[in-house]
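Workshop exercise sheet. Pairs work together: one partner reads the sequence aloud, the other fills in the structure field after running the prediction. Swap roles for the next sheet.
Pair: D.N. / O.F.
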Amino acid sequence: MKLLITTQAVDLDDPVLSFFHSWIEEFAKNAERVHVICLKEGRHNLPKNVSVHSLGKEGGRSRTKYLFRLYKYVIGLRHEYDLVFVHMNPEYLVAVGWLWRLMRKVVGLWYIHPRSSWRLRKGMRYAHVIFSATQESFPHVSRKLMPVGLGVDANFFSPGEYAPAAELRVMCAARIAPVKRVECMIDATAELARRSCPILFDYYGEELPRDKEYADAMRKRADLVSNWTFHGKASSEQIRDAYRAHDVHVNATDTGSFDKAVFEAMACGCITVASNKALKDMLPREFQFDEGDPKSLANTLERITRMPTEDKKAARERMRKLAVEHYSLSALVTRILNILIA
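Structure field:
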């Protein structure tokens, strides 16, 4: 099996996309040869059967050069791949999907986001199959859609040393954006402070330029809450260590989006609470709250503060077991490749 992957970045230091490095490693275990075309190339340490081809964003912006290099790689490597896996960027399909079809390559698109775009609507016609976590995590109804769940590197995201503290240590790992419902988490933290419920909340992540106004508003809002801290950009290792050290990870993202952080936290044994309706069958009911409702989230966190230490430890073990058995990266990649080959 020879595979071509397209993605936005191959960079272990990228605060958002560093996780995809482990995806490439997993694909490489199952393929004779893997070529990766990315918009930006950074630090990486990939197996010998993987070659990375950058469109050159790390050297400056030039859409003309991007397109020229894309065609150069797609055509020049045409005898080096049989299958194509497009990760999250339908722009690749808009640009060269017709060419892949002409060359009789089997093309799969991975897409998880509640919003559509003309690029997605146009690009999806060139994909033979569309992969998403659930039906709800893809913005269109399509016969091509294959819900395959999510996968995390359960070897990297694993439990570490854990010791309960007097305060409930709560965290969220996500970029600062309206879809993440940061205000819900801040207001829930303030509500718990009014109830004299001991809690510390740590937020790891930063905003994209388009969300600066929202992020500034959230920082001002959080200034009024003494037990809330924004930590900004964090590496994968720092996020993993945070999962290990905190009692609870909160995901308040709107239904339709799907955050890998949910399953990373679970794999580290961190109790995960979420409001996303797409997760209703994946998380125990006692760790779910009503979407966008700070009081509902506060109630859920307050119940966890009252759990005996042994019950918290048992819940952490249950989270880890669920992640390993159902949401591991190796199982996900196997499902994807089996569908592409069929």
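Discussion prompt: The CA atoms of residues 140 and 340 lie 20 Å apart. What would you look at next?
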